[in-house]
Amino acid sequence: MDFDLTPEQRDLRQRVIRFAREELGAQAAAHDRDETFDRDGWKACAEFGVLGWPVPREYGGSGLDPLTTLLACEALGYGCADNGLVFAVDNHLWACVVYLLRHGSPEQRARFLPGLVDGTLIGAHALTEPETGSDVLSLTTTAVRHGDDYVIDGAKCFISNGTIAGLYVLFARTADSGPAQQALSAFLLPRDTPGLEVRRAISKAGLRGTPMGELRLEGCRVPGANLLGAEGAGYRIFTSVIEWERGFMAASQIGRLQRLLETSVSYASSRTQFGVPIGSFQAVSHRLADLRVHLELARLMLYKVGWLKREGRIALLESAILKLFTSESLVEGALAAMRVHGARGYVADLPIEREVRDALAATTYGGTSDIQRTIIAGLSGLPEAR
C-alpha cells in the first residue's frame, strides 16, 4: 500500500486550501445569521473549477479521478469557514451532477453539465416527501405518461439547495403494480418547468448558508427526453448513486474535523488556568487525542472509498461505514471543541457554536446513522432488519 499523495495531488490540495481561505467564508457568520446563500462564493467556486472537479473536460470540467476529487473536497471543507456554502457545493456535485455523470444520456449531459460546471445552474436532489424519507420505495409523487411527456403530481420537502436550484433530480412513481423496485423513475426538472413551484423556504438549526426548500408539483409536464435512464429504473439509479453521495460528502466533513482539531489544540496550548495551559490537563488532552483518532480513521476510510471508485468498484458497504463513522465523529468533534473552549465555545459571536449546529445535521442527510447501521448489518450477512 502507498499512502503518499502524488506531487499533483499535493499541489492541488494546497491550492484549494489557499483559495478557500483567501476567497471564501469571510461572511460566514452573516450568512448563518441571516440564512442567506453566498452567491459571490458560489461564483468564485465555479471560476476556480470546484463545480467541475469530477466532470470530464469535454463538458468544461477538470476530469479529476474520484480519489483526487475527494482530496480536493477535503481541502475545501478544511479551508472554507462557511460550512453552508461547502454543503451547497456537496449537494450540487453528489446529489445532482453525479446522476448525470453516471446515468445521463449524451444529450442530457451536453444540455445540463456545462451550466452545472460554470455555476449558472445549481443542482438539487428532490427525493424526500412529507411522509417518506428513508423508505424510498414508498414515494407517493406520481409521473403519468401522456404522449411524449410525463405529468408529475406530488410534493417534495427538505430539499437542500431547494430554493436556489436551477435543476432538480426528482424521483416519482411511474407504476402502480408489479415489483416495488421497478415502480420508480428519475427525472431531470429545470426550475422553469410548468407546474413546478418552490412552495416555501425551510429554516433550520445549522448549515443555514444552504437554503432548504419545499416543492409542489401540480400537473407538472416534463418531456420524455428528461427521463433519466429508463422508465422504472429509478430505484436502481438511486442505489447506484447513493454510495457516491454518502462517501463523497464525507470528504468536506473530514476537512472540518481537522479544522476543529487544529483550532482546539491551538486554544488548549495558549489558554492558561491555574498557571498552566489547559492542554496539560488530561481531561482536555484526552478529549483531543480521541478527536485525532477519529480524524485519522475517518480519513483512511475516505481514501479507501476514493480508491475503490477510482478502480470502478462497488463501495456500498464502505460508503455506509464511512458515512456513519464520519458523521458521528464530526458531531463528537464539534462538541469536544465546544467543551475545550468553555464559554467561548458556546457564545454566538465566536464560530465554535456554529460548528456544533452545522455538525448536527451530518447524522441525518444522506441517510440517518440508524439507516447506515441497518445497511452495514445487512451487507455483513445479518437477517433483514424489521
From TrEMBL:
Domain (Acyl-CoA oxidase/dehydrogenase middle): residue spans on this chain: 124-220
Keyword Amino-acid biosynthesis: no
Keyword Oxidoreductase part of the UniProt annotation: yes
Acyl-CoA dehydrogenase/oxidase N-terminal domain sequence ranges: 6-119
InterPro entries: Acyl-CoA_Oxase/DH_mid-dom, Acyl-CoA_Oxase/DH_mid-dom_sf, AcylCo_DH-like_C, AcylCo_DH/oxidase_C, AcylCoA_DH/ox_N, AcylCoA_DH/ox_N_sf, AcylCoA_DH/oxidase_NM_dom_sf
Pfam families referenced in this protein's UniProt entry, alphabetically: Acyl-CoA_dh_1, Acyl-CoA_dh_M, Acyl-CoA_dh_N
Keywords of this entry: FAD, Flavoprotein, Oxidoreductase
Entry-linked Gene3D superfamilies: Acyl-CoA dehydrogenase/oxidase, N-terminal domain, Butyryl-CoA Dehydrogenase, subunit A, domain 2, Butyryl-CoA Dehydrogenase, subunit A, domain 3
Transmembrane segments: none
Cofactor(s) it depends on: FAD
Record-linked SUPFAM superfamilies: Acyl-CoA dehydrogenase C-terminal domain-like, Acyl-CoA dehydrogenase NM domain-like
Acyl-CoA dehydrogenase/oxidase C-terminal domain sequence ranges: 232-377
Family according to the record: Belongs to the acyl-CoA dehydrogenase family.
Protein's UniProt name: Acyl-CoA dehydrogenase family protein
Originating organism: Nonomuraea antimicrobica
